Amino acid sequence: MKDGSVGPVAGKLQDKTAVITGGARGIGLAIARRYAEEGARVVIADVDSEAIDEALEGFDRERAMGTALDVRDNTAITAMVRKVEKRFCAIDVLVNNAAVFGMAPVLEVDEADFERQFAVNVKGLFFTLQAVARAMVEAKRGGVVINMASQAGRRGEPLVSTYCATKAAVISLTQSCALDLIRHGIRVNAIAPGVVDTPMWDEVDALFARYEGRPLGEKKRLVGEAVPCGRMGRPDDYAGAAVFLASADSDYVIAQTLNVDGGNWMS
Fold this sequence. Notes:
Elements: E1 17-21, H1 26-37, E2 41-46, H2 49-55, E3 64-68, H3 74-88, E4 93-96, H4 111-139, E5 143-148, H5 161-181, E6 186-193, H6 199-212, H7 218-226, H8 239-246, E7 257-260
Parallel strand pairs: 1-2, 1-4, 2-3, 4-5, 5-6, 6-7
């Protein structure tokens, strides 16, 4: 333009199709909303069908859809991919956000909860990645996968041994999958959140109260105060990193796990 202005600018994810697992609440929903703002077509995949309907309020229904998905079920994962392809042609971005949490001292960890956490956080994440990556290879247009790890995957913690192990596995899988899939033009990276103020943290706080003998609310307050930034994270704090890793701005970023944690962990 003659006045030196650049005029309208398309969003960084304009006309990309992004699938967000566990997308009906918390960080997943914050990412879905930001992706829509950046021009993406958004697919909210979640095990909670009622939450999906609520989450889709405010989205352009021509450019957004919801689908029930239990990532422990490989048949359901395949069906989800086909459903998205039928609606939006191809998947460009996968955000592997679905996860569960558990807490217990090592001597009290039971097999059922151990298997539940690994089934969702590791097996479900991997086979969702695999199914989407296969579709991306078939479509021959590359793609992006973003796995949600955690600061818990960077270190051990006494009451969350199983959860820490699952998130360490996510970081490792991110590296291996990235090195394998980049030959197909598929970039794989991860985000490692710190402590995040979501409804789940009220459940976590209650567990800490049980195992550490604390009043309800105290652990959550202390954890927030201990963050160098001075507060717990909020779901919106992760949307910018998710846009960056999904966009062309990060074309040379491969196999990395980006810490977004207010300064809790440095690596």
